[in-house]
């Protein structure tokens, strides 16, 4: 893992216009740009989605760059929101570094929250896939 501040790839309730965007990102970010996470599937959860890494498809979202003075606080609040604690087997999500694609070509390293291994295994067996990988287009 890098020690440099990374942007965040958001794909569900933290996207602009979604339920958690204003509460958690408003005033804390410099930019939000459309981006795609390759090699991932999007599953519907109980009011929020999960990314499960799989070769081939992709997930749509935004790359969010935090204001430098807000980065540490934002990282902590997003970890709490996603119920992520390093090394905890009860995690719903794991925070990982991955490359996302902007504008069809430019790759950028970012933090994102993916389904924890036990959640991903369950979703692969019985989860409801969001066709097209876009949370906003799911309904």
UniProtKB/TrEMBL annotation:
One Pfam family linked to the record: GGACT
Where does the record place the Gamma-glutamylcyclotransferase AIG2-like domain? 8-136
Write down the superkingdom of origin: Bacteria
Protein name listed in UniProt: Gamma-glutamylcyclotransferase family protein
Biological source species: Streptomyces fuscus
């Amino acid at each position: 893992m890098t020690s440099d501040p990374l942007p965040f790839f958001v794909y569900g309730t933290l996207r602009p216009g979604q339920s958690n965007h204003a509460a958690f990102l408003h005033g804390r970010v410099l930019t939000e740009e459309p981006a795609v996470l390759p090699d991932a599937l999007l599953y519907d959860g109980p009011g929020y989605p999960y990314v499960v890494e799989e070769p081939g498809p992709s997930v749509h979202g935004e790359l969010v760059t935090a204001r430098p003075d807000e980065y540490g606080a934002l990282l902590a609040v997003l970890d709490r929101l996603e119920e992520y604690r390093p090394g905890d087997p009860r995690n719903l999500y794991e925070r990982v570094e991955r490359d996302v694609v902007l504008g069809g070509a430019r790759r950028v390293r970012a933090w994102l929250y993916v389904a924890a291994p036990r959640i991903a295994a369950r979703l692969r067996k019985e989860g409801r896939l969001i066709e097209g990988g876009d949370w906003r287009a799911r309904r």
